Each structure stands twice: as structure tokens, then as C-alpha cells.
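Example for tutorial group B:
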């Protein structure tokens, strides 16, 4: 069955993180994006331009996604092995984070290129409307995160933690929350700079590469720090607890991978 033009247009911009499209009120991101596009009142010509852009991107990316997924799985498995060692090998962790970031860079470029393609086909009024809509959604997302109550992490359930272990984990989790806030601030600054580049009228891959190069060391540092937190967490657990936690996480990864394969076959 052929997709509607609107559905095709929608799929070119799902995941537009620089514009912070976030689902609210029980809506999926795709449904939210469809609502946004409908508010922009795209012309038939604009929809066709986006459709052609998406088809060209799909053709260019054909065959790359499976290879990238496999490479990412191998990196994550090697990272898990390193963090399960008796000592923390920072040099190896840094190397793996850099490899992971290299793969992530391609995804980030694909994302921002889709956003730029969308922005390029809009007229002045539509561009203004899009930025206003995304500003509201960004504020809603930030407020939602601020109002979210703190809960026991799911991976801790059923591990029979002692009071001493729980106290140590609580301290680490507070440090992790602070680190994640810093990471979000860094990523938001990057997205804001991306948006400024898109709306400047001088968007190009060379310009984006230069911008990314400014932030890449911070992305790697953040990844290494998160790995340190992960390693410290594992050191608090007994071997049995660690095995139980890792089994659960493995099951969740397999579930999400299978879901991704099913969704991929459905498109």
C-alpha cells in the first residue's frame, strides 16, 4: 500500500531533535509531527519536494543502517566487557566512546539534514510558525522533565539490595542526575547552534562539520564519565546481582532490537 504524501513528508522529519519534537498527551512522535505539519498548511508542491528529498536520502542510505547497527552492537558489547573487568580501563573506554561517537555523528548529520530540507521548502510565515510551535514543545518538555517524580530505577527491582548498597547507589544516582543535566544542557546548546545554522541561510555540511567539531570533545567526555558511573555502579553489586541485572538488560535490548526489526519491515 502506498503511503499518503503527508505520511511521507512526516517521515522525513520524525526525530527532529534540533526542533525538539516531543510527543505529549499520549501521542506518539509521528502523530505529533503530523499535527505540526498540518498546522503549517504545506502546499502540494512543498509536499512533493519533501517526498523527493526523502526518497533520495533513502536511496543514499540503503544498506548502511544494518551495518551501522551491527557495528554499534559490537561496540556496546565490547564496552560491557570492559566495564565488567576488575579495573577501569579509561584509555579503552575513551577509544570505544570515540568509535561510538563516529557512528553517532552520521546519524546526527542525517537528522539535521532532514530538518534543513524541511526548513528550505517553507515560506517565511511557515518558518516562523514552525519555530514558534517547536519553542512551545521545547518548554513543555522541559517542564515535564522538571515535574517528573524521582523513582527507583527499574533495574534495581528484585536485586535484594542491602541498606549499605542502596545508600551507595543513591549517592551515585544523584551524581548521575547532575551529570545528565549537564549533558542535556550541552546537547541543547548544540541543537540551538544547529537551529541557528539552519535558519542562517548558509547551511552546509562543511558548516555543520565545523560546528560538530566544537562539541565532539564534550560528547566524548560525557560518554566516558557515564561509563565511569556505570563501572562504579557495578562495583557496588555482588556477582549474583550483577549477573541478574545484566540478564535483564540483555533481554530488554533483544526486545527493542526485535521491535526495531518489526517496525523496519512494516515500512
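The residue assignment follows.
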Amino acid at each position: 500500500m502506498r503511503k499518503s504524501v503527508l505520511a511521507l513528508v512526516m517521515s522525513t522529519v520524525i526525530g527532529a531533535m534540533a526542533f525538539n519534537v516531543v510527543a505529549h498527551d499520549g501521542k506518539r512522535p509521528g502523530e505529533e509531527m503530523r499535527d505540526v505539519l498540518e498546522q503549517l498548511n504545506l502546499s502540494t508542491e512543498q509536499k512533493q519536494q519533501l517526498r523527493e528529498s526523502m526518497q533520495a536520502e533513502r536511496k543514499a542510505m540503503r544498506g548502511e543502517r544494518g551495518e551501522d547497527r551491527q557495528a554499534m552492537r559490537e561496540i556496546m558489547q565490547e564496552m560491557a566487557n570492559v566495564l565488567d573487568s576488575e579495573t577501569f580501563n579509561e584509555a579503552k573506554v575513551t577509544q570505544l566512546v570515540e568509535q561510538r561517537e563516529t557512528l553517532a555523528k552520521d546519524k546526527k548529520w542525517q537528522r539535521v539534514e532532514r530538518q534543513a530540507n524541511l526548513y528550505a521548502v517553507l515560506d517565511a510565515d511557515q518558518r516562523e510558525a514552525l519555530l514558534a510551535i517547536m519553542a512551545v514543545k521545547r518548554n513543555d518538555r522541559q517542564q515535564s522533565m522538571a515535574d517528573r517524580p524521582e523513582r527507583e530505577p527499574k533495574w534495581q527491582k528484585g536485586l535484594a539490595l542491602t541498606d549499605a548498597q542502596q545508600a551507595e547507589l543513591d549517592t551515585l544516582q544523584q551524581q548521575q542526575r547532575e551529570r545528565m543535566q549537564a549533558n542535556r544542557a550541552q546537547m541543547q546548546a548544540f541543537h540551538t547552534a544547529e537551529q541557528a545554522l539552519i535558519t542562517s541561510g548558509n547551511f552546509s555540511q562543511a558548516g555543520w562539520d565545523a560546528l560538530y567539531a566544537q562539541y565532539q570533545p564534550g560528547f566524548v567526555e560525557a560518554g566516558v564519565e557515564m561509563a565511569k558511573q556505570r563501572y562504579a555502579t557495578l562495583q557496588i553489586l555482588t556477582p549474583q546481582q550483577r549477573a541478574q541485572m545484566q540478564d535483564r538488560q540483555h533481554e530488554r535490548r533483544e526486545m527493542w532490537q526485535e521491535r526495531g526489526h518489526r517496525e523496519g519491515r512494516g515500512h
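DSSP finds nine helices and no strands in the chain. Compare this with the pattern of hydrophobic and polar residues in the output above.
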